[in-house]
Write a structure and sequence with these properties.
The chain is α+β, with helices and mostly antiparallel strands. The chain has 23 helices and 33 strands. Helices cover 38% and strands 24% of the residues. The protein has a nine-stranded mixed β-sheet with strand order 1-2-8-9-10-11-7-6-3. The chain starts with a helix and ends with a helix. The structure holds zinc ion (2 copies).
């Protein structure tokens, strides 16, 4: 649908779509802007242009229109006070990680808190009516503007003023009346300054008129009246109309402060502290002028760099002021913004990574560090985290609990960035040498494939400027989740299946066949659990035919059979395989136990990423930044088994979704979004509470034992735990114990062998002196002493042995000592070393043929290998174990030739 078309239609009938009581009471005039043509409502007779095209645009900078000054949290206090005084319930913020919608990673608007997706429809569930909520929202599409424009944030607080028009709630008249009084009575803004601009909003198949309200050119809020659905001209009125007024808290603070940028007043004392620390050299007046120029001209130029250059020229800033004033200041603004975004996201359980929503968090973190390094700003990340949480905890006390976890994750992720820079540097140097001109798509490709940020390339002078569209283009690629479509089987006219496994759960039952086709059967009721939530389906028999798979299509359970199917209309006897079901059930409850155990041991960022439960094994994928250590795995397993031993009660209750969320928080969505109004809550006393449709044991002791068999980092930010529970765990322990016993036996045998060898070595060592004494006394001829053959002739004595009792240690020590004691002697020892034979040769006095080197070479050649050394000592060997004697014979021959 075309927004302009809707706006034209609505503005053609302003009495119907825009005129509210307040306009009449306060004598508001409707005018059309000569510049942009938009219609607006004002009390000021002299105002002829819309707020964005007026001369007073952004004139609140340096000259705020209020007497009171409110910073970020004070501004919220004023707003909350005003709306609660006027019958609104103040609701705590929802997580910034949007666990209740599978089409969004992050909460992008306050209304999202109360939207639930049912099929293709979005429904609203309000915990009260009317509501006021200070909802932090994460948006990454304007990243290039953050720090530069004075008003763009990667996360901001959207005040949601929400109402359903019924006995409690209100519609347009009261909404605009409240907003007008908020600005005039609570904030003290002169009513002449308040301008309403006609606009429309459309999305998700519904649409309505809206009134944006401005003060001095700054849009403070937008009241959307969602009331229609369908196509324009062919539309109908919604059953549930909604007032969705969203206002930027940052802007409320800014307009009362009149600081050069919103960043100066929305981070508590942090911005100023950092500015003092870094030392920015620029006059406040010049800054105000500069940022007014930026704000006014933002839409006039194609990109933010050009806007900036024009502002610099128009204000007349010299190069010095830009380099030592504007640039580092923008860096500080960016850093303070980015780290606040990370604090909210990590507190709510998100991790920076290269997949899904984590992608944008990694970009933000790397950009922040890159900016610090590029500008040479020495800032302590932990100190900044502390300052933010100290300031924010009055408004968001839950951040305090996560202080340590936020620091852990940011530190892990910063280190990872530093490590990756080593690789980045190599690639970058290469690029520099090639002198390629890189466009924004090249840069995106480089970030996607190698994690190289443009900040880093700029730091190395490889690119002159970061393309202004880089970050927005990149984050667009990773904005929303792609939801996959399930394959459809034609079942339009089939009645929904009664699910017996949620009731008495009989393992044998009679049912009527409502449909049968190919290999599929649909019954009127079933106790066969259909595959879902990572739990594998039940097996068994229907009318004697084997059930091999069970799936849910909408509310119809489809059984897949093997070797035949019963006929439609038949009454069939069904048997669920109990052993399989029990195995799966134990693994399922164990998944819940392990998930909470892992969170308790590792940190609050642990969420179930996915899970799989079979009869004899299961796996649980958790969100974690690094691979697990053995120690951590042991602790998780111990903690899980403690819960098993405590025999905790597992309770299953159905709640209205909103009630469950309020009672237990969003932790219940470990298994993802629940697309029904009534959620099934499975709680293991107060240890673990999850929304889950699976089958569970009644008490944890039924599980008996949980064993983690393997863990593995399967992707960035996700670790897999493979485990077994119940009988499968006992089986695992048994085989594992058998393996252990075998390993122990082998180790003992090896130890015995080693001991024996050591003993032999010691004995041989003792034997050497006496052997040598005996050998020295031998006369001409051949004799054998302790398996060493000694031949003495022509003033030469040759000793050799192939005895298995001598090892390398002996040969070396014996040979060495023998030729020292008897310089006439030569020695050749051959021994087995694993698959080969080795030889050690010593020669006391030597000649051309009669030397250790020549003998070792000749012997080794016969043994089928190589040898060598010097005249005195040489060694070698080969594989021909049968040629031992031949080799010795050759050695002897060489000595006595
Ligand atoms: Zn205009
Ligand atoms: Zn579950």
């Amino acid at each position: 649908m075309d927004k302009a078309e809707i706006l034209a239609k609505f503005s053609a009938d302003p009495d119907k779509y825009y005129k509210v009581n307040l306009f009449e009471e306060q004598d508001y005039q409707r005018k059309a802007c000569p510049t942009c043509g938009r219609f607006f409502w004002t009390i000021d007779a002299n105002r002829n242009y819309c707020p964005e095209d007026s001369d007073d645009t952004y004139s609140f900078i340096g000259d705020p229109p209020t007497l009171k000054r409110f910073d970020y949290s004070q501004a919220w206090n004023e707003i909350e006070l005003f709306f609660t005084k006027n019958g609104h319930t103040s609701v705590n913020r929802y997580p910034v990680v949007c666990r209740w919608r599978d089409d969004l990673y992050f909460t992008i608007a306050s209304i999202v808190d109360f939207q639930r997706v049912m099929g293709s429809k979005v429904v609203f569930e309000f915990p009260a009516n009317p509501i006021i909520v200070p909802q932090p929202c994460l948006r990454f599409k304007d990243l290039e503007n953050v720090g530069i424009t004075g008003r763009h944030f990667s996360s901001f607080c959207m005040i949601g003023q929400l109402s359903i028009p019924n006995e409690q709630g209100y519609w347009k008249d009261e909404c605009i009346d409240l907003d007008f009084r908020l600005l005039t009575n609570q904030f003290g803004i002169n009513k002449n300054e308040i301008v309403f601009v006609e606009d429309v909003w459309e999305g998700g198949g519904s649409f309505g008129s809206s009134l944006e309200y401005y003060v001095k050119g700054l849009e403070l809020g937008n009241a959307v009246f969602t009331e229609f659905q369908g196509e324009l001209g062919n539309h109908t009125v919604l059953d549930q109309k909604i007032i969705d007024m969203g206002a930027g808290l940052e802007r409320f603070a800014w307009i009362t402060m009149g600081t050069p940028t919103a960043y100066d007043c929305c981070f508590g004392p942090i911005t100023e502290k950092l500015i003092d620390k870094v030392g920015i050299d620029i006059e406040p007046d010049l800054l105000s002028q500069y940022f007014i120029e930026i704000a006014k001209n933002q839409e006039k130029y194609p990109n933010i760099l050009e806007v900036k250059n024009h502002a610099i020229a128009n204000v007349g800033l010299d190069q010095q002021k830009v380099l030592q004033g504007i640039n580092p200041l923008e860096g500080i603004y960016l850093i303070v913004d980015h780290i606040r975004t990370l604090i909210f996201a990590i507190s709510d359980g998100a991790l920076p990574s290269n997949v899904g929503g984590g992608y944008n968090l990694r970009i933000v973190l790397r950009r922040m560090i890159g900016t610090m390094q590029r500008l040479g700003l020495k800032l302590d990340l932990n100190e900044m985290i502390d300052m933010h949480i100290d300031y924010l905890k009055a408004m968001y006390p839950e951040l305090e609990e996560k202080r340590a976890d936020v620091k852990t994750i940011i530190s892990v992720e910063s280190k990872r960035y530093e490590e990756s820079k080593i690789r980045m540097k190599k690639i970058a140097i290469n690029l520099k040498a090639k002198k390629h001109v890189l466009n924004v798509n090249d840069l995106i490709r480089m970030y996607e494939s190698d994690g190289i940020t443009p900040d880093y390339l700029k730091e190395l002078d490889i690119i002159p400027e970061i393309p202004p569209t880089f970050y927005s283009k990149l984050s667009e690629l990773h904005q929303t989740v792609n939801t996959k479509q399930k394959e459809k089987i034609p079942l339009e006219n089939t009645a929904e299946t009664e699910l017996l496994f949620y009731g008495d759960d009989p393992r044998e039952f009679e049912a009527e066949v409502l449909g049968s086709f190919d290999k599929y059967v649909v019954l009127d009721k079933t106790s066969f659990y259909a595959r879902g939530g990572g739990q594998e389906p039940d097996h068994g028999t229907i009318s004697g035919f084997e059930v091999v798979d069970v799936n849910k299509h909408g509310n119809v359970v489809v059984h897949e059979l093997k070797d035949g199917i019963p006929k439609e209309g038949e009454t069939v006897h069904c048997i669920v395989n109990s052993k399989r079901r029990e195995g799966i059930t134990k693994h399922h409850t164990s998944t819940h136990i392990l998930n909470s155990s892992a969170r308790n041991i590792l940190g609050s960022w642990i969420w179930q990423n996915s899970a799989f439960k079979e009869e004899d094994h299961a796996r649980l994928d958790i969100t974690h930044h690094s691979a697990l250590t053995e120690e951590q795995v042991k602790k998780i397993e111990e903690s899980a088994n403690k819960i098993v031993q405590k025999d905790m009660k597992v309770t299953i209750e159905n709640f209205d979704r909103g009630t469950a969320e309020q009672k237990y928080g969003f932790r219940i969505y470990q298994g993802g979004v629940v697309p029904v109004k009534s959620v099934r809550i499975v709680s293991i006393e107060d240890f673990d509470v999850e929304a889950c449709g699976g089958t569970h044991v009644k008490k944890t002791k039924e599980i008996d034992l949980i064993k983690i068999t393997r863990t593995k980092r399967i992707q960035d930010g996700v670790v897999r735990l493979e485990f077994v529970a119940g009988p499968a765990a006992q089986e695992y322990v048994k085989t594992h114990e058998a393996d252990l016993a075998k390993q122990t036996a082998e180790a003992t045998a090896k130890e015995e062998r080693d001991n024996l060898r050591d003993q032999k070595k010691a004995e041989s060592r003792l034997k050497i002196p006496s052997l040598i004494e005996q050998i020295k006394e031998t006369k001409t001829g051949t004799t054998t002493i302790d398996e060493i053959e000694v031949t003495t002739a022509d003033a030469v004595r040759f000793c050799c042995t192939t005895s298995e009792q001598y090892d390398e240690y002996f040969h070396i020590n014996f040979g060495e000592k023998l030729i020292k004691a008897d310089p006439q002697a030569l020695y050749c020892g051959i021994f087995e070393a694993g698959p080969t034979l080795r030889t050690i040769v010593y020669a006391g006095e030597f000649s051309k043929n009669r030397n250790a080197d020549a003998i070792a070479k000749a012997v080794s050649e016969i043994l089928g290998g190589f040898g060598g050394g010097n005249n005195r000592f040489a060694q070698g060997g080969g594989k021909n174990k049968s040629k031992k004697d031949e080799a010795i014979k050759k050695a002897k021959q060489m000595v006595f030739e």
